[in-house]
Amino acid sequence: MNLRKTILAASIAAASVSTVMAAEKMPEKPAVPTLGQVMEATGISVNGYIDTSYTYLSGTGTFTPTPGTFAAGGFNRVFDRERRSFNVNALDLTLSALPPEGFGGLVNLTAGSDAQVIGSTGTDTADEFDVTQAYVHFAKGGLMVIGGKYVTLSGAEVIKSPSNANFSRSILFGYAIPFAHTGVRAYFTPGGSAAAPDGKWTFIAGLNNGWDVLKESVAANAATDGTIADEKTLELGVNGSVTKSISVAAVFYSGNESVGAATTGQRDLLDLVATFNVTDNLSFVLNYDKAEQEKALAGGRTAKWDGIAGYANYKLSDAWRTSFRAESFDDKDGFRTGVNLGTGGQKWKEYTLTLANTPAKNVELRGEVRHDSSNQSSFNQPDGTTKKSQNSLGLEAIYKF
Predict the structure, then answer these.
(1) Mean pLDDT, to the nearest integer, of 297-316?
(2) pTM score of the predicted model
(3) What is the DSSP letter of 377?
(4) Backbone conformation region of residue 344, classed left if phi is above 0, alpha if psi is from -120 to 50, else beta
């Protein structure tokens, strides 16, 4: 009996050893690499996001027109223009190869309702697709040069929604500054790398077609009198850290512009942004803009506008954060908003409170309430009347990949 047990145990042990050896000899099935891993292996980075939302506006989202001047009032929102609707704001895709030394490039494509807003003059803004950026890149030491189409240097907010603290964009983002430029831009970081400045001071200079202009010679770029701004716009900028917790950025634009003006004239913009990181959880941001355009109004008069926006951002926990924004925009001649054009313009203010949650690494959910007001009864209502204020609610879901 003991012999039989011994033989049985030996047989089981031999079978186990054989199984283990077979398993060791059998190669594991290799994992299928993702598209991102394949692209990264070739030095190309792929990323993007999907941005969806629901908006509720107490008004129609448009300004009342100036009698005899505009057939319809301009929008009083930047992207969130739907009065009561679910919306696909953007499907954003970016492919880039930006080595710290040598040549590279970047392409940023946007599909969705946002594309109709940011489309530059000379492109088809009727569809929901936009080549937001497309440029060749060269870097060597502290110098970096890009040529093509790229986003503006100005403003505290950007086109890419995940990089902003609030759902709705500021007044300044939509009415004080441009979205993008086409031309050539150079960055220089003394004693550092322009591709990764790490808080060092960076100086920037560029020459562009103008504000949101891809092709300067098209008829859509003409002023009311038919003149077209085909001279270039100069951009000069500087940014860096004043202290460990304070950073600043300043940019100046100057060049001829035509769109919306009575005749082509020189437009100048000064944009300042200061960021104060008080603690790891608390930060404040200030953004100031001042601009003017010569010959923009009837009789050759100069149009002027300026504004200031302040942000308070607080991280409640790893998953929750909140942001409060307050701003004031003085469209002194109504040139940017179309309200009281040439006869006093309007003073427009807004206050926005946003609460955001990150339930997963690549997902952010946002909810916000906003109140806009003006010294003019300029907010159109669904019943055909106008009011001096408008309230809104926004719900947003962002998935990043």
Answers:
(1) 97
(2) 0.87
(3) -
(4) left
